Amino acid sequence: MHRFIFRRLLMMIPIVIGVSFLIFIIIDMIPGDPGSNLLGPGARQEDIDMLNEELGYNLPLFQRYGKYVYDALFRLDLGKSYATKKPVVTEIANRLPISLTVAFNAILFSLVFGVPLGVLSAVKQNTIFDRIPTGLALLLAAQPAFLIGLVLMLIFSLRLGWFPANGVASWKSYVMPMIALGLPYGGRQLRFTRSSMLETIRQDYVRTARAKGAAPRLVIWKHAMKNALLPVITVAGNSFGILIGGAIATETLFGLPGLGSFIVAGIKQKDVPVVTGGIIVFAVVFSFVILAVDLSYAFVDPRIRAKYSGRRD
Amino acid sequence: MKKVMKKARTALLAALVLAAFVLPATGAEERTLNLSTLAPLTTIDPHATTNIQDIMFHRQIFEPLFFQNEATGKYEPRVAESYTISPDNLTYTFTIRKGAKFHNGEDVKASDVAFSLKRAMNSPKVRSYTASVAEVTQTGDYTVDVKLKQPNAAFLNNQNMILILSQKEVEAQGKEFGTKLTLAGTGPFYLTSLQHDVEWTCAAFKDYYRGEAPIRKLHYVPIAEASAGLIAFESGELDWYIAPIANWSALTANPNYKTELVPANHISYVAVNYEHGPLNDDNIRLAIACAIDKDAMNIACYDGNAVNADFMVPPQNTGAPTKGVVYNYDPEKAKEYVKKSAYPNGTHVGTINCSAGGYFEKMAQVLQSNLADIGLTSDINRLDSATNLDMARNQRYDLLCTGFSPYGDYESIRMYSYTKMKGAYMVKFEGDKFDYRTMDALWDAGIATTDLAEREKIYSELSDWIAKTATLLPIFHKVQPYVWTPDLIVPVNYPNYPQVYEWSWAKK
Known about the structure:
Strand order of the largest sheet of chain B: 14-18-13-17-15-16
CATH superfamily of the largest domain in chain B: Dipeptide-binding Protein, Domain 3
CATH class of the largest domain in chain B: Alpha Beta
Oligomer: heterodimer
Shape of chain A: globular
Number of helices of chain B: 14
Helix content of chain B: 25-40%
CATH architecture of the largest domain in chain B: Roll
Distance between the termini of chain A: 11 Å
Helix content of chain A: over 70%
Order of helices and strands of chain A: HHHHHHHHHHHHHH
Distance between the termini of chain B: 45 Å
Number of domains of chain B: 3
Radius of gyration of chain A: 24 Å
Strand content of chain A: under 5%
Radius of gyration of chain B: 26 Å
Structural class of chain A: mainly alpha
């Protein structure tokens, strides 16, 4: 198990270097320069040149990249934002907890909502308990989080006044983003759980458990559920990773200063340190999440645990 | 013991009665004004940004020497109480207001003013406003001389963009100035908390030389999404808001809100790159100018609430022309121009560039339709704003729908045509096509002339010169749809930058 974790952690190094290099190349290919973007229309060329010089953007691409990698590796410094002049590490440190909170709660909500209904739907296949949840799942999965967010705002902020429409002042600020992001993913989880469960409950070992006289509830929750959960965990893990940096529309709508909106703002201003730093952190967090997902298989399935333990090797 | 208890009870009762009368009044006075910006604050350093959202806030905590009132165009003394100009129009002597204090409690001195102006001269973000300044000298504790390279009639307008900072506070924070709380301003409010991308708060500055602001506390949040902002306003989270124009009718019909449409100090225009293909033909450009239906663009972009523009700067700007060459919607005349051109049967005029996501897209669609009506075909290219800007600067466009906020003087539009401003201009006039030297000379004459009537005459001539080229076509001045709660008194809603100091809560 330890060797497996160590190997995976080691793999992150080339991933981070590759991601940062790609970002540097891609941003360099985008027309324009940070100086002209920051100064806006009507700025004089001499002022643009002066600002680019001040930002270190006039150096050749590979020199800039080399300096970036050196600072990142040996000083743990991801540079300063061209726009705000604040250290990118600080900016990310402020934003990452917000993104993690929103993503974690949304995934938790999607699981709480989707898994029980998915199980019910599978167990009661082709009944009203199946059709209503699957119909609902289809409807929710097709809705963009942005739209759900607006509807929630109209109801819970404007009409009822229960939750603030904007900001991160208290736990209340996270409720609507959690539901807005969680509902579409919940719909997807419901469908995954249903199909996975349907496949599992037709397996021989489930039939055997039933034949041995085990209570139906025990068969479902103890025998079938553990195996049916594997694809559900995979989807939840991937979704969590994506939500950390990808919930841009929801962050914008609810005024959440998360990682996604930070990276997008950086792209718009050609703020290289922001984009590179943001995406590196996103890649690292995503890698950790995928590692956690892989490890969680071991807890659910003893066969996988055995493989991780090296017995297969 | 009983007596003591009785006395204590009486004292407690008296305190409660007093509190009942006093506390609500204090509470009302201390009520926080909730405002929003469209983007997080990039910086607190006013010399390190040209972002209009930043400036809207900076104007509450920092001040220039002289403030140009956006509504009247007049200059009002702020950090300086007066100024004189030398007979050769080359030296401005500012007398600093005695009694003006920074938020740290220290007096504003000439040294701070000289420091601020010199700092601005070295900042890439704002140094264009000090381009005409040769030297800044502190001549006394409360006097500063600003020597210009050549006479500059727009100097006062330019210094309006340079906000005065405490040298001590700026130097104490060093490179971190702009990223954290500061007491470096002289404005009516000072910062009390700061999270650039979440929220920031201010309190009224008790020692402000014009008197403490009637509203004591400000709370700002950045809300980028217009619908979310409107919901925040309607649910009571905001007290004053620049609403989306699409909701204007509903807001004005609601008796619970106060509303006002104020023309912004902004111009939306179409730039024509005469160097590209058929656009080099004078008749084709004139046809385009006459084909544009400004009313239709106004309706498409601002539900008809914007102000159609005849000239490139709104009339409240110093030196803005009020009469001259103007193109009005006349499709028949446009068709005649097409017939007279080298392309009598119409042609493809190229691509209309615009930034994606805003109203410029709608402008581009109407323009495409207007051109099609006179037999000119075109494509639309929606670009991210950075790419659009880069292409415009490098003359990589055929037609461009865009906009600009002047800052109070006709001179502020110079960069879009003056040939010595490479990289800034949208139309490159330098070449064989036009007598660009005349245009450049008019720009130079306008800035060197201090007599306002004479300046207006020069700019009128200049405006006509540019209009005749049919390359920079003004469309409309957009409007600011302001909406606020009825218990908030806002004497004047300004075109771009609110002056919260003038606001107060209605007495109940």
